Amino acid sequence: MKYIATVKDQEYTIEIDADRGILIDGRPQEVDFRRLPAGGVTSLLMNHRSVAAVVEERSDHWEVLIEGELYSVQVQDERAYRLGRMRTTGMSVDGEAIVASPMPGIIVAVPVAVGDVVQRGQKVVILESMKMENELRAPCDGVVTHIHVSAGASVEKDQPLVGISQEHDEA
Amino acid sequence: MKYIATVKDQEYTIEIDADRGILIDGRPQEVDFRRLPAGGVTSLLMNHRSVAAVVEERSDHWEVLIEGELYSVQVQDERAYRLGRMRTTGMSVDGEAIVASPMPGIIVAVPVAVGDVVQRGQKVVILESMKMENELRAPCDGVVTHIHVSAGASVEKDQPLVGISQEHDEA
Amino acid sequence: MLRDDGLLVQKFDKLLIANRGEIAMRILRAARELGIATVAVYSDADRNAPHVRFADEAYHIGPPAARDSYLVMDRIIDVAQRSGAGAIHPGYGFLAEREKFAQACADAGIVFVGPPARAIGIMGDKLMARATVMAAGVPVVPGTTPGQTDAEMSAAAREMGFPVLVKAAAGGGGKGMRPVSSAAGLADAFASARREAKAAFGDDTVYIEKMIIEARHIEIQLLADSHGNTIYLGERECSLQRRHQKLIEEAPSFVVDDDLRRRMGEVAVAAARAVNYVNAGTIEFLVDRDKNFYFLEMNTRVQVEHPVTELVTGIDIVQEQLRIARGRRLRLRQEDVVINGWAIECRINAEDPYNSYLPSTGVITSVQLPTGPGVRVDTGVFEGNEISPYYDSMISKLICYGETRGEAVLRMRRALEEYRIMGVKTNIPFHQHMMDSHRFLSGQFDTKFVEDRFSMDDRDTAHALEAALLATLAAHEQNQRAAQLVAPGARDTSNWKWYSRWERLRR
Amino acid sequence: MLRDDGLLVQKFDKLLIANRGEIAMRILRAARELGIATVAVYSDADRNAPHVRFADEAYHIGPPAARDSYLVMDRIIDVAQRSGAGAIHPGYGFLAEREKFAQACADAGIVFVGPPARAIGIMGDKLMARATVMAAGVPVVPGTTPGQTDAEMSAAAREMGFPVLVKAAAGGGGKGMRPVSSAAGLADAFASARREAKAAFGDDTVYIEKMIIEARHIEIQLLADSHGNTIYLGERECSLQRRHQKLIEEAPSFVVDDDLRRRMGEVAVAAARAVNYVNAGTIEFLVDRDKNFYFLEMNTRVQVEHPVTELVTGIDIVQEQLRIARGRRLRLRQEDVVINGWAIECRINAEDPYNSYLPSTGVITSVQLPTGPGVRVDTGVFEGNEISPYYDSMISKLICYGETRGEAVLRMRRALEEYRIMGVKTNIPFHQHMMDSHRFLSGQFDTKFVEDRFSMDDRDTAHALEAALLATLAAHEQNQRAAQLVAPGARDTSNWKWYSRWERLRR
Q1: Is D331 a catalytic residue?
Q2: Which of the listed CATH numbers 3.30.310.50, 3.30.460.10, 2.40.50.100, 1.10.357.140 matches domain A90-166?
Q3: B34: distance to nearest CA of chain C, Å?
Q4: CATH T-level fold of A2-78
Q5: pTM to 2 decimals?
Q6: What is the value of ipTM here, to two decimals?
Q7: Which residues in chain D come in under a pLDDT of 50?
Q8: Do C468 and A73 form a contact (C-beta atoms < 8 A)?
Q9: CA angle, corner D51, sides to D45 and D56, nearest 5?
Q10: Stronger pLDDT, D18 or C462, i.e. the higher one
Q11: Is residue C462 within 8 Å of A68, Cβ to Cβ?
């Protein structure tokens, strides 16, 4: 079985073969993998190097916690991987990215307006929650197409706040 | 639903009634019981008194850990309780109690002989395991009817070591 | 005993803790160790929280929002009376610095574990606090009194030299505060600070203060009993902040020597005496690069970062709070307080350091606490607890002790690696990155360091390959199981081992 | 550097830990804090043990039985060489006090983190140790030299006065030891001690010693560098034992004052110097009711109970071991060692205190560590680990610190209540009962206290009713679920609340 695992834009090809063992990017590895019967911990020995981790499944990826660092891993088999490459990721079907509220809170400010050109990482909403002002940022370059809230509004978790179209450079 | 819970020879009658709430030995109690979604901890508020516990099922009883103390609880509904009272408990059908090895180890000594009259709590086998000599004791008063091992023998977990008949005082 | 200043001081055997999270746990433990029975209060969001389980009794006080539960004074005093609690410990936040609440406790015949209401009132008003401590000879940052005209403030600013800060008299948490680098910016700053202050506090009084460059935030921990004895327990270095929220604290401070410690300590004692302070409190100072120090404010309560002082002095500050509230004399004199070794605290928050420190909510699925020598965790979160959006995002505090600062840092690195929290994102990588930073290691930082000169972008993470492999093995295992319809019960004992053909041949 | 005495002392960057359980974890943490890479070894029974996960590398060394894995010297030295480890730390037990192993390490060019092989050899032979330290002026329990005839020993016994102990020269752990209260019992005791010694050690040499009444077991922790500096870190009180297994240790001791500490410390240093000792070691003494002290033996390794000394001195003993093995000079002089506060350690064993302390095996289903101020846990066991019959039953050590002994005891009570281990029985109730005992609280105990005057039978347990209710609610919930075919996923969020009709009416 051949998988493609993606971590932070880095892809690894991992083959699990009953006969040939485990190959990572084509190179064989000595691997001993254990999952403890309780507590959620796994132990990996790879060529005698020891790595302990917590591995949990999320809706569309795996989360792996190693020495304080949380890795988000996409695991796809070859077929899913090829299909996936044909689609744009993270967008709704009409090419609009939605900035949704990650938690309940109150909108402090929306420092963009419809029609603004924004860059990935640019502040688009300031949300007050958990006693802090939190900055929500654009997930991609694009043009602000919708603003669904204004300062002072109470919002729920997952409520859409701002829409950003990716297609400004084609217009 | 009416249950009889037995802890250390003390019996409690606990009624869970959709209409009347919870009654312990006939007296109503205000009870708020929560089981956390992970970690195995339960929280009980009973008339505002707070008790935290780990509750786990074993083959024939429940184990409840509260503030360092492990309680072994038998829970029976009324019918099972009445049936149970008609049988002798903890004995095999022919009235012989078996002292079995609680873990693998080596027999250091068997300080009783077939025909000896023993009292509950009396040392009947000394077993070396986990770097310690451990004393196994008679579970009831009786007469030693069988000795299955001798000093120096290696034994497995649950291996029968000594049989004790309860019926000596009727003989 | 009800003192002349309205403070009720007397023995009690049952304590209500009017708080939640790690500080509620901290106080519960101190009370238990002193043999005092405990009463917890909880909102709807906190029925499963650990402070409910650890207390002897627990009472529900309302819906999740703090204003409807933890901030409702009457309801908390009512629980104290129903449960027979003779005292209330407010922790920090919530009701801890409400003059009215301290007074309401005394009026109800309940010991408030804190200072007299009047001391809270004075120290809670920035301008009154400033005037009071100045009169006691405490140095303050040069600045104006409130209620001056724009023209008067502009003149004062020119005299003390730019940059200056325009601040709201009723302010806090950075709200209504504006840095101004030249006279030209003053008018705008007055207007916008007033607007923000009016909106946030209902009071648009502003004043100006000289802005201290390369300032460090260093504070002195005090203990004062009800018999007139006040001592200082050395300093804490709290310069590592983000948006006025402290993130890492340590004791002692890299820049404080014995002489400066004694001078700051004595000034802090004088400031406390100026308001007839009783119980634990902290004087916050700004220290400039020439080691001049200026009174910033007094926190009239136990602080989040109190454990670092506990580790280097061996004194249990929360137990001392309870002893003082019971009317006991301090057991220690100033000369008994000795600083040994070094302690560092990292605040572990549910937030994503790689994404603007956005708070993270959810259910904690797995926790493994670091332990072993020199490691202390003050936590209010265990497996199965939910991090809800209703309260602040601090999950726990990780505190490490070492014989030297270097050893404390190395131990903190080790403890951060061991600490596993799954279910929400945490700022553990932020702390790891800080512990690796040369600026932190060499003690060269000020209150602007985190915001201005620290970035997570240059962090190298070493285990991407292993993470990829582990996720793939877990996914593969799941696929195999789905295909073969293995019973769910068998799931938990999977142990796989592969040797490559190459490896097998070599053997 | 290979010294004249055969001890190899030099810098190393990778350390093999030839042990398992909590002490392997303890050493791993110390190495990590010093920036030293780590190599674990494991038997078949320990693939899932935490020391395997915490190390940087791990190597399998054989089947579960220690004689086939942790005790196989060649295999461990082979792993050190394959992995490039420059040093081996033996922990305690296993190979820690094998002269041959220390020598084999040196021969292989590997640093042994411990004393010279010869020092292990001398101190490992009771009679040679006794002769060596006597020559250095160290007081020993009156007794005979070995190889004497029964008649000579009987005469000596009459001269020193009964009771006496007949002891095996090669003995340990109480084997081959017989108390004799009058001359009439001597002949039988000689015979049976010889028989047992022959069977256990292959050597039937015996000798006699005066039996000390109301003896306390008090030991002195030493550190010696390879440059001739030896210091003592104060004493540990270890009298609470059962069958020669220590259960509770504390520092300092209730019965040792400054003068006695200094005298015992200086004698301990003299004993160590008599064998040119290097690294951490402990001199065990018996102290009688008149505070006379007698050399018992030297433990030439780190001890289980070392953390209590670490907490009251602030010194990390395992880090010091590694520094000494790397050839560094001690950073501390004797006058720098100061004892602050009080520390108590409870050994948490998987055993049933209500049933003859029978060991308990199984998989740990749930662990919640106590934490917060003044609490340290040194553990080698986490959720999912198995307690197997192959190794000893110690799960972890719980160590509490307080400003006074009373505060340490109260904190220990609190921590024992918080500590949850499910899946095996533990001796936590034993420790709770001890912390409640008046004899323990007043410090009035000797080495016979646990066996002769302490019983679990009089322990009151307070929560039988709540346990009954909780088990019944869990059983009921399970019944309801079975009857209604609730989806398994819904299982984990069950929250039930009942108010009695009476309660509802009252509202």
Answers
A1: no
A2: 2.40.50.100
A3: 7
A4: Glycoprotein, Type 4 Pilin (3.30.700)
A5: 0.88
A6: 0.86
A7: 485-494, 500-507
A8: yes
A9: 120
A10: D18
A11: no
